[in-house]
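## Example pair
The file below holds two records. Each record gives the amino-acid sequence first, followed by its structure token line.
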Amino acid sequence: MIRFARRLALQTAGVVLLAASLPLAAVAGQADDDYIAARDKAAAALAAAEKAGANPDDLYKRDEAALATLQKRMAALLGPLTFKGLNAPPTFSPGTLLDGQIESAEPDGLRFSDADFTTRLLVSPEPVFAAWLAARAKEENAPPELAGGIKAAMATDLFYTYAISSDAAFAIYTQLPVAATEGETTYAALGLFSQDVAANQVPDSIVITRIANGRVIIGTSEAKVAIKSIPACDQVWKTYAAKAKTLRAAAQKSKKDDDPRWDDASRAEDEGSAAYRTCFAKEAKNQPFFTAAVARAEALLQTARGN
């Protein structure tokens, strides 16, 4: 099987990103419907060819051709787009249409980034993005907020893990109060992309969502703010970490791979990480970095408004 995955396989919160065809969006305009139908048709054709035992090189070529055609259609749907400091032309999402590949579960849209990939935007027509989100909401263990639509989902960790992550899970530490202009809906948060338990790591990334003019834009950028650890929150984490350490020591002493305390220890670390973030969200507004973080989010949102 061809290795199309251009990013690391990602699993978080018990949810594995699975490829799924986008259902037709009931409220989409005709152009959006036509795009989704074309996307589904191309994905189905590739799936049939793969099932029939097509040559991997041929599958790759067909996949690339289908993506190129869809990118042209997507560009036509979105119209001219320029974002200060970000690349042109953009790249297309998803990275593949082949079922079972991690990138086939990415949202349909155009991706923009700066030269070092530290600031990134995904732009998608709202009906197309809503259809993608509805498919993600049906996956096992998906948080119920995903089924509530874009406005409900944009305040969840998995929303950014699914839509804008490069190869890591995103954890929201605190919402950032950004101002919306007339006719737009916005959300911003300070958080952390991580491939492991976040523990008591301080956040280092800004994420934003903007809904306006029939488009959804999800963005992220490095916080570039001096964020210091909060002692009270560190203490919360240390309590759970000590519990996990004790459980692991006991499990190791038992010399049993199936000792339930291995899982209990991991669960304690997950709970401790969540408790640390709850504490952080409560304390963040009183910290010196908060105002600067909000300013960074406002700047990223302004970039997302385009030129």
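Second record, same layout:
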Amino acid sequence: MHFSSKVTEVLGIKLPIIQAGMAGSTTPELVATVSNSGGLGTIGAGYFTANRLDSEITYVQELTDLPFAVNLFVPSEQLYVPENVEHMNAWLKPYRRALNLEEPVIDISEEQQFNEAINVVIEKGIPVVSFTFGIPKQSVIEKLKARQITLVGTATSVEEAIANESAGMDAVIAQGSEAGGHRGSFTVTSGDHTPLIGTMSLIPQVVDNVSIPVIAAGGIMDGRGIVASMVLGAEAVQMGTAFLTSEESGASTLYKNAIQHSKETDTVITNVFTGKPARGIDNEFIHKMDYYDDDIPDYPIQNQLTNGIRKAAAQKGNAQWTHLWSGQSPRLSQFVSASVLIDNIVKETRSILNK
């Protein structure tokens, strides 16, 4: 049984396994371990400054000679509404008081940070860049393509996948609604919601409508998920939550324990932490925000307003006031090294295929 496909060839990897770029939870050790194990490690650079990204890449390059990716957030057209922000700050005051926090200063230089990150990626000779939250401008795509960098987009519907292909992406991640963390959606459906199509439904429909390779994502945790994805027409899988509980992950012990002790019914999709819909384990902060009687400020504004609260709560061991992103298959999570996890997945995949 060999695992090669168009995707593994394009990405220069042995195994069709990509570790998702989980912003805030990837470490150079995780990225390098995945790449050294035959998959594609990804630096979750969504919140990084150019300097931080530069040093992170340097560190990964010291740990592996194999290809790895950088995942970037495409800047959004955010609306800064002062009254909205004031209202939200008033609502968040009790949390800040309890944690001895100051009101944060809002920084909306997303576009500049993104452009600087693109320059770092080019300077450092990164072979693969993946994008979430939309499609970058054509000028950015052309700049990266001129350097022979492989570009991978994210889609949560067939329409989004077609848009990725038209823009010149080399492959597309079809992210099912089971996926943990932020949705990669950049369109809204008729009900003014972002698409929520399950992985099993999404993959074959995307495969039938684009000619670029499709990477399956959303709820995939083991060999069974890989085989199912390939049968549906995907050429590789991207796994996030599976790597979140690995030894090399940057997730806190509090966070890893929350995933390991949660059930498939415990996650919800909420925009209360960041202003963008994301799947995570239900908790008190989400419930209290149900009573908030105004619009939640757009991403990245809400993200910045709640960031200090979430960090301080996590440090104090309070799982009720922080985000706990997780996909819908937490019962399948393993507390092992990323290399052992990949090894287990490969063995399981082989044994299913050999039956």
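Notes on the second record: The CA atoms of residues 275 and 296 lie 6 Å apart. The mean pLDDT is 95.
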